[in-house]
Amino acid sequence: MSSDAKRPKVEGDYVETRDERLQNFLQWCHEVELTISNKVFLSKEGTVAEYGMMAKQNIDEGEVLFSIPRNALLNQQTSKVKAVLEESKGILENTSGWVPLLLALMYEYTSPQSHWKPYLSLWPDFKALDHPMFWSKEERNKLLKGTGICQAVETDLTNIQKEYTDIVLPFIQSHSNLWNPEKHTLDLYKSLVAFVMSYSFQEPLKEEEEEEEDDNEDPNPPMMVPMADMLNHVSNHNAKLEYSPDCLKMVAVHSIQAGEEVFNTYGQMANWQLLHMYGFTEPHEENVHDTADIKNSVVHQAALQLAQTEEDQHLLTEKWSTLCDMGIVGDKGAFIFGKKGCLTDTELYTTLKVLCMEKDEFDAFQEDREWEEADDEDEVTQALSNEGLPDLAPTWRRLLHVATGIALNAYTEGVEADRMLLEDQEVLGRMNSRNRRALQVRYGQKMILRQIQQLTQSGSSTSKTS
Ligand SMILES: C[S@@+](CC[C@H](N)C(=O)[O-])C[C@H]1O[C@@H](n2cnc3c(N)ncnc32)[C@H](O)[C@@H]1O
């Protein structure tokens, strides 16, 4: 380690920090020409979680806070193992597209000579990662029942295990000069998956590429962006990352006052997504992007409950298979509700419309293939916004009301029980942090569902939409 005296003064580097790892990282930033404005500094003090960036002086909207040259990004192209990853491209392809980066990280993270050592050493053992994938299954099922996270984590864990056993381990074994199965274990792989989940960035496609890659949903592989990944997230963020051909820049999107934390955005993330991917949550009130799902199958179940005769049930089966054929609903699909209304409004509108049709109407609908005529998008959005819900046709409203009830029953406790816990500071203080985060997710989802339930209460208003 070099002494303070030998260390060059890095612009924006708050040398008063006694954090040696941070000092080494800032020194490395200087060497790779990653430039930082002297109006900001990295710190563990005053931030919402561990490292974060703080404003030292007032910052104007549009100011560049730091700039990262492209050769300081860590991905399979910049890693020392680039050539061997490139050679084996075909073998390493998998559905997530993460394997090459994960192999590069396994190598760089454990290599004492790695060019990336001062950066990766900021997280010596990934102790701070506490995604639900590290909780026990019992804990997940107890705390997160109904939130959708349990199933998402089970799928992740199955995929991680399979990816490691089928692709990574054989590859490591055949490249024993670079990797070693005793060091590069499944446990390390799992920690690195969580690290990539919560610290990596994915460059958005340029417009031309987007047009070409119409069917490709996940075209750019993830990469590690030193410094940008030191910023924490809030939905009401004040900075964002911009991509240009030479470098990536963190730019203030609002003015930031001295003493405030600089927050990036990880995207428009509901609390369940934040907990699943990043291991934290925002208070439901503060997260403007919070959502709750009603599974497609739950709306089907609600319609079956409302069907009064065998004939109705039979008709319903036909309607459901029509909706499946149209690609509107599916086994794993869900309707998503935000704080202001349904975000998958076209799908829900068509589903309610078809499920609530009389038999002759449905026959005509099928014959005329009327479904190919799109409904007016603005009208659909308005009808399924919170403002529009009380005015839905009574049959639609009833169906949505029953479906919401079923969705709410999937949770262990009611919304009032969670509200009481959240309002009692003493109880909250005694709660462990997993419990608190799970509570935020459950409470937010239930509040959104409860709101739909209230807005679709029968007899609340006369119908306008039919
Ligand atoms: C990209 S890193 C940010 C740097 C991180 N604080 C550190 O010290 O390494 C993302 C991680 O920071 C934490 N984090 C980010 N925003 C947060 C927030 N608003 N509240 C709590 N934790 C947050 C979570 O642990 C998340 O997985």
From TrEMBL:
Its main location: nucleus. GO terms for cellular component: nucleus. Its EC number is 2.1.1.-. SUPFAM superfamilies: RuBisCo LSMT C-terminal, substrate-binding domain (SSF81822), SET domain (SSF82199). GO terms for molecular function: protein-lysine N-methyltransferase activity. InterPro entries: N-lys_methylase_SETD6, Rubisco_LSMT_subst-bd, Rubisco_LSMT_subst-bd_sf, SET_dom, SET_dom_sf, SETD3_SETD6_MTase, SETD6_SET. GO terms for biological process: methylation. Belongs to the class V-like SAM-binding methyltransferase superfamily. Histone-lysine methyltransferase family. SETD6 subfamily. Protein-lysine N-methyltransferase. This is N-lysine methyltransferase SETD6.
